[in-house]
Specification:
- The protein is an alpha/beta fold.
- The protein has a single domain, classed as TIM Barrel (Alpha-Beta Barrel), CATH 3.20.20.
- The protein is 38% helix and 19% strand.
- The chain has nine helices and eight strands.
- The chain has helices at 12-15, 34-43, 71-83, 106-123, 137-145, 152-155, 172-186, 210-223, 238-244; strands spanning 2-7, 25-31, 49-55, 89-92, 127-132, 158-162, 190-195, 227-231.
- The chain has an eight-stranded parallel beta sheet with strand order 3-2-1-8-7-6-5-4.
- α3 runs parallel beside α4 (106-123) and α8 (210-223) runs parallel beside α9.
- The longest helix is centred in the middle third of the chain and has 18 residues, at 106-123.
């Protein structure tokens, strides 16, 4: 199993955790521009680490990437990626729940949704979409309609499902069944996000213990998932490393 990482806050302290990683990995680094990403990428000297660009927006633009985000910001991200077509991109497809009034901007939705889909059809093979874990077929349909779920069969992207059991304890069984279903449908085009082992932008995400991370990794191994992505690098320590090395 390949074990990779997200890093939402690429400070020197968080990036230093790379030194705990001895296996080939991908690090999806959050940055507000390709230029910022490239500076971070060039600062990482370890040969076993491949970097992916995780574009984030200003908070008043929507932060995450959805049709409800700022049309100007979505255009900016797409233009940057088109100018760097070989860059591996992690498209964080989440809705602006931190700013619910964004949902009232239907004009943004219609401008963005067609632009995003057109972009995916051309550049999908270099895109990894971080997406919500889905409970059932209906929720899957709703997320597709809202522009935050993308089919690898249609766009040739890789799908990373955020199966964060520390945050969804009561739903973990239903979400796990959906992961199984998606793996049957998409095979190795489905990756799974696990965690969280450190807080993110919300600041209050529950932390997954090493023991429960091992449980989740066992479940992924049983399903046949070939790559998982841990949220996030900054929470890595020797106890987590002991667990992860059992699955490399």
């Amino acid at each position: 199993m390949r074990i990779s990482f997200f890093e939402e806050f690429p400070t020197k302290r968080n990036l230093a955790k790379i030194n705990l990683i001895t296996w080939p990995t991908t690090l999806y680094v959050a940055a507000k521009s390709v230029q910022d990403f490239e500076k971070i990428q060039h600062s990482i000297k370890k040969k076993n680490v491949t970097c992916g660009y995780w574009p984030i927006l200003e908070k008043n633009e929507g932060y995450w990437l959805s049709p409800f985000s700022s049309a100007k910001a979505i255009k900016r991200v797409i233009t940057e990626v088109k100018s760097n077509p070989k860059t591996k991109v992690m498209w964080d497809a989440e809705l602006p729940f931190r700013h619910p009034w964004f949902f009232l901007r239907c004009d943004r939705y219609w401008r963005n949704v067609f632009k995003i889909k057109k972009f995916f059809k051309r550049y999908g093979k270099n895109i990894y979409t971080s997406e919500y874990a889905m409970r059932n077929v209906f929720s899957s349909f709703v997320l597709r309609m809202m522009g935050v779920s993308f089919s690898p069969k249609k766009y040739n992207n890789k799908k990373i499902i955020m199966y964060y059991t520390s945050m969804h304890k009561s739903l973990s069984h239903h979400l796990l069944n959906n992961v199984k279903s998606l793996h049957t449908k998409y095979g190795n085009s489905l990756h799974v996000g696990l965690g969280t082992i450190a807080t993110g932008i919300l600041g209050n995400e529950p932390i997954l213990s090493p023991q429960n991370l091992e449980r989740d990794l066992h479940n992924m191994k049983k399903i046949g998932i070939k790559e998982v992505v841990i949220f996030r690098l900054g929470g890595l320590d020797k106890e987590y490393v002991k667990v992860l090395t059992k699955f490399i």
